[in-house]
Amino acid sequence: MYRLFTIIIIAVLTSLQGLAQQRGKATYYSKRATGARTSSGIRLHHDSLTCAHRTYPFGTKLLVKNLSNGKEVIVTVTDRGPYGRGKIIDLTYEAARRIGMLSAGVATVEVTKYNENKGIPYALEDSKLPEFDFGANDLDDGTGQDVPVWQREKKEKGAKGKNTTGSGKKMPGKSSTDINTAEKADASAYKDVANAAEQHEDSHGAVKTALSKSTSKSSSQTKKPVRKSSKKGKRKK
Question: Cα–Cα distance between 206 and 24 in angstroms, integer?
Fold first, then answer.
């Protein structure tokens, strides 16, 4: 009894292994079969990637590899067959063209079940995760602690604002005392220029007044009335 049970288990495992991977001959449908109804009820078309298999359920995807050239194609089971000796799969015309067996008509292939990995819940083996640069805190503020980038930028902006004069010119490398002294010197120079301008205006006004007076005197002298002599002489008695 134990031996019989062991033999059954070995036979089942062997059959499962045979279903997982098969090697045999593949044929393909003719173009004339286009429009024929398959065992699953779907109509056949020579441009579709479908196949006929004896054991796999309808809708199962199979990976077919041509052992002579290494070309592969993925097809879906929609029909039953083939039932010829040594044949394991029937392909459509398009599937046969993709693995390069049209000229030969028959090819030795390897058929395996295709498990489509959609990446859920596991990622693909050849997938590469993107690399992110989070801006490492590689700056030291002198206290032995790392300083974030945004804090460093804020400090730099504050330092630039302090080293800027009222006229908008930057004064790099100068202290606040020097800046105040320079501002005071500029203010005193501005006052001196303003005073000079006022004095110039005052002198110009005095000159203008003197010129106006002299002009009025000369005009009054030239405009004296001239007495007209009478042309008629005195009559003699």
Answer: 124
Please write down the long-range contacts of 218-224, taking CB distance under 8 Å and 24 or more positions apart: none
* The pTM of the whole model exceeds 0.70: no
Q: What is the pLDDT of residues 11-29, one digit of tens each?
A: 655 555 445 689 999 999 9
Give 16-113's CATH code, choosing from 2.60.40.1230, 3.30.479.10, 2.40.40.10, 3.40.640.10.
2.40.40.10
Alpha carbon separation from 93 to 71, 99, 184 (Å, rounded): 15, 10, 95
Each domain of the chain, given as residue ranges in start order, spans: 16-113, 145-195
Q: What is the DSSP string of 16-71?
A: HHHHHEEEEEEEE--GGGTT-B-TTSPBP-TTS-EEE-SSSPTT-EEEEEETTT--
For residue range 182-200, list pLDDT tens digits in order: 666 767 776 777 777 777 6
Among the residues of the chain, which ranges form H helices? 2-20, 93-98, 149-162, 176-222
Quick one: how far is CA 200 from the chain centroid? Answer: 66
